Each structure stands twice: as C-alpha cells, then as structure tokens.
Amino acid sequence: MIRRVLLAGCATVFLAVSSLTLAASPDQFTGAIESAQLLDALQLDGELFHVQGLEIQGGTIWVTSVDNDNHRGYIHEFDRHSGKLRRRLELTDGARYHPGGISIAGGSIWVPVAEMKAKSSAVLVEIDTATLQVRRTIHVADHLGCVAAVDGKLVAGNWDSKLLYVFDLAREHPEQPERIVPNPSQTRFQDMKFVDGHLVAGGHLTWLSGAVDWIEWPSLKLKRTLQSGAVGPVRPFGRGGPYTGEGMAITGRDLFVVPEDGPSRVFHFRLDS
C-alpha cells in the first residue's frame, strides 16, 4: 500500500514536471517524426521486455530487450511479414545484462551488452546472423549502449551517448578505442546505423521528445536532425515514449522504430527525402 502511494506521488510529480517542461517549450515538436509519413505498424508476436535495439534485413527483424526484473538480456529474431517470434538468444554476461542498439555488417550482428550503470563495463558481441552463434567478444571499460558497424570499424555510444568511441577491428587490441569524440548532438542515442556514408542515430531528448541525427563520417560532425514526438504513455509509468527513444533501423527513405516495451510494435515511416 505504501509502495502504491509512493508510486502515485512520484507519477504526480513527474507529470507536473512534464507539464512545466511543455509550458516552457511552446514550440516543441508534437507530431510523430518530422518530415516523415507513418505507413504502417507491425505487432511483434513474442515475449519482449524493455526494448533497446532494432535491425531489419530481408525477411528478418532483430530486437534486443532487457528483463530488468530478472537481470537478463536477449536478442530476439522475428519474421518480418508475420511478426512471429522465431528464436532468441540470451546475452547475459554476469553483471553485464543490458543489451543496447545493434548493427548488421556482412553476416554479423553486433550487440553491446553492458552493466546497468554509467562508467562501468561492456562487451561488444559479434553474432552470426544465420546461426545466432557468438563469433567473438570485445571487452570495453565503459558502459556502451549502442553500436554501428562499417568497413571493419565500430562506433559506439556510452551512457546517454555523451561520448562516441571508434574501434578498429583490425588492430591488435581492438578493445582500445582508436579515438573518442564528444557527441556532436544533444540527442541521447539509443540506436545507430551507417547509411550511405553517414552515421544515422536515433534517441531521446526528453521523456516526451526525441530525434534522428545524420552525422558525417569519419569527421563525426552533425549534418541534419529530424525531431520526434511521443507515442502512448510516457515512461517510466507507461510503455511508450518518443518514437525514436529506443530501437531504430533505416533503409533508404524507410525508417523503422520500436518505441514501446513488450508487447511491441514496429512503426514504419517514409522520409520525405
């Protein structure tokens, strides 16, 4: 009973603060995703927890999620057409049970699995997309919450993506970053991909808003930003949040996001340009 009262009180305070935030930002974007049209949404039919990363290739959807109650992390594979769960792989590595934003390169999918706290540790896991067998792991001395792969390089964001780590997989010690760059954006990246020579990263700005950023590679300078509004109730008291707040995948002008914890939907947007 006391816990219920405390939660209700916290919710009231949170909503009040949210209202003040909105009042202080009258021009805040309140649509879905700027310069994008919502085409459809696919229900994912399988157990998901707190959703983190999204990747889509061919007829397959991959989603990572973290079971915070039991301190377990997973990558789930779904059929892209039906939304049915095919299989899942547990990624828990002791104190590291928080999988993040994911990226496909060749026949591998890269997943960061970190401790659930800032300035901690993570392991970058390379998984065979066909067999879901782990090919290799790279241990890193920081929390990493998202990763993108291209041409033998990895770019990963730490807690709230305040820093971007660049790793060279060809180096003798790939766990040692080639360089560390401050995030050129205010967006707290949750998922990132390489698309047409750019790093495209999505994340949240507040509990109610988010963004998708296009960042030049390899300079890592911000080039373009699209704003995002929220879907459904706002965390931590609901399933929803900013459309771009969790998993994101992109192919050409097709942008896919998974903003909700399980049961989850994949929202499909078409970008104007």
Short description:
The protein has 273 residues and is mainly beta. 8% of the residues lie in helices and 51% in strands.
Structural write-up:
This protein is mainly beta. Helix content is 8%, strand content 51%. It has one helix at residues 2-24; strands spanning 36-43, 50-57, 60-67, 72-79, 85-90, 96-99, 103-105, 108-115, 122-128, 134-140, 144-150, 153-158, 163-168, 179-182, 188-195, 198-204, 210-216, 222-228, 230-231, 241-242, 247-251, 254-258, 265-271. Strands 6, 7, 8, 9 and 10 form a five-stranded antiparallel beta sheet that branches. The protein has a four-stranded antiparallel beta sheet with strand order 1-23-22-21, with no helix packed on it. A hairpin with a 2-residue loop joins strand 7 and strand 8. It is globular and about 45 Å long. The protein starts with a helix and ends with a strand. Residues 1-26 have low confidence and may be disordered.
Salient structural properties:
mainly beta; 5-stranded antiparallel beta sheet; 4-stranded antiparallel beta sheet; disordered N terminus; globular; 8% helix; 273 residues; 51% strand
Shape call: globular
Which segments are poorly predicted (pLDDT under 50) over 5 or more consecutive residues? 1-26
pLDDT averaged residue by residue:
89
Number of strands: 23
Nearest-angstrom radius of gyration?
Answer: 18 Å
> Element order, helices and strands?
HEEEEEEEEEEEEEEEEEEEEEEE
In oligomeric terms, what are we looking at? single chain
Q: Structural class of the helices, strands and pairings?
A: mainly beta
Euclidean distance between termini CA atoms: 52 Å
Please give the share of residues in helix.
under 10%
Strand fraction: over 45%
Largest sheet: 5 strands, antiparallel
Number of helices: 1
